What does this fold into?
Amino acid sequence: MNLSPDPSPQASQQSDRTKQLLESSEANLKKISARPLNESQQDTVKQIRSYMEQAKTAVDEGDVQRAYNLAVKANLLSAELAGH
It folds into this structure.
């Protein structure tokens, strides 16, 4: 638990990166939504959304590292599904 009033530069940078990853994941999901998905792909979309929600919750709780890790997972899955 970090008791300092200001986030460290590293935490702030990681928080910015988390936000970018979540935005990228959202953009990938928008691309994906234009095409029909099989059941497995639909499950992957649900998993991505779950990771994104958990990441946002972690940000709200001040858990920058967990938020970043979840955002990375969401981004990797969404990029794979979008064909990047």
